[in-house]
Amino acid sequence: MPAVLTMTVLGFSGYAALLAVAPLWAVHGGADTGGAGLVNGVLLLVTVLTQSVVPTALRRIGWGPVLSAGLVLLGVGSLLHLLTDALGPTLAFSAVRGVGFGVLTVTGSAAVAELADPQRRGAAVGLYGLAIAVPQVLLLPLGPWIAQQIGFWVVFLIAALPLLAVPPALSLARTLRTRPDRSGTTPESRSAHPSPGRGITPLIGPTLLLVGVTLAGGAVISFAPQMTTARTSVVALAVLTLAAALVRWRIGHAADRWGAHRFLWPLVLLTVASMSLAAVAVRHESEVLFIVAAAALGCAYGGLQNLTLVLAFAAVDPARYGTASAVWNIGFDIGSGVGSVLVGFIAVAFGFPTGLLVAGAIALLTLPLALTRRSGPTPRPR
């Protein structure tokens, strides 16, 4: 696990540092708002496309080469921004980073599933989530400030930290290559000869639950600066991110002890309530209510990320951990992207409160999935 966590912190530092700064860099080069919006749009699109092929790449090429290539692309793609702030090259560099980020997200969570004891998987996923969250809590708000107060070049150097993750990634690959599971097989041998399994059908429920909450989260994260004052949006996003990090970390222990399913429906309802509260806050311009809504959404956002990933791994056999990781990550990115686009379009015609309520209603549609307990190797209370 230390190699996974080190790789994750360094890798996600590269992602988080440029999430808000790369669009600013495009604006610095003369791009309009639409052009700036394309920067992360391209990153997201290429990330999703890459995630869909990572399990196959792991089977055919192996963990070491795939991990190393992904981290190098993520780090070098960040350094390439030093060459120009023109929109065309900036979009191309975002695509390069998207390939690397797609590799990092799928391999990181799949490695956690391979290494963690099934009875402690919730705690392991929580620790992995904390490793993801720490760079985002620090670098998402600080990145733009550093770029504007010191210089963009500093942020681009920070975003190259994934290059330092190559050695721990190679160490992780060696561990996975030699570590047998209880059946006596190694991850790489299982990847080379995957069992037929049940396809992705068992993953549909956890993934749709994830899409519901990330759609809501993506909407608030994308439009908070436009829905409230600059000061309130900074505080709200910091509270949301911190709450998500803490809950994603700690809820894993509860899931290991009592099972993941019993926490699903309360978190879905918390998502709905938080979006309703956010809509009221925006309509009445209440800064306090907006921050409270962000805190509540952060709890649901972090908790459901952990639980749905635990359930996704529990729903498949070890040979399909890579597939489960890919499907989960694609669901996360699709939810985040759709939330931003959908609420944005609705807000143009009807205003942000209506958009937030629609996002909450979509999350409510996933409640039956949270109430349905499928048979399978889910954690049991002890």
Please, how many helices? 17
Q: Enumerate the spans where pLDDT stays under 50 for 5 or more consecutive residues.
A: 190-197, 375-382
Structural class designation? mainly alpha
Radius of gyration: 20 Å
Fourth-level CATH superfamily of the largest domain = MFS general substrate transporter like domains
User: What would CATH call the architecture of the largest domain?
Assistant: Up-down Bundle
Summarize the structure.
With 382 residues, the chain is mostly helical. The chain folds into 2 domains: 1-193, Up-down Bundle (Growth Hormone, Chain: A), CATH 1.20.1250.20; 200-382, Growth Hormone, Chain: A (Up-down Bundle). The protein has helices at residues 2-19, 21-28, 33-51, 54-60, 63-79, 87-115, 121-149, 152-158, 166-178, 187-192, 204-227, 230-258, 264-283, 287-314, 321-350, 352-364, 367-371.
Structure, explained:
The chain has 382 residues and is mostly helical. It has two domains: 1-193, Growth Hormone, Chain: A, CATH 1.20.1250; 200-382, Growth Hormone, Chain: A (Up-down Bundle), CATH 1.20.1250.20. It has 17 helices and no strands. Helix 1 packs parallel to helix 7 (121-149). The protein starts with a helix and ends in an 11-residue tail after the last helix.
Mind sketching the topology for me?
Blueprint (H helix, E strand, L loop, with lengths): L1 H18 L1 H8 L4 H19 L2 H7 L2 H17 L7 H29 L5 H29 L2 H7 L7 H13 L8 H6 L11 H24 L2 H29 L5 H20 L3 H28 L6 H30 L1 H13 L2 H5 L11
Helix pairs in contact: 1-5, 1-6, 1-7, 1-9, 2-3, 3-6, 3-15, 5-6, 5-9, 6-7, 6-15, 7-8, 7-12, 7-14, 11-12, 11-13, 11-14, 11-15, 11-16, 12-14, 13-14, 13-16, 14-15, 15-16
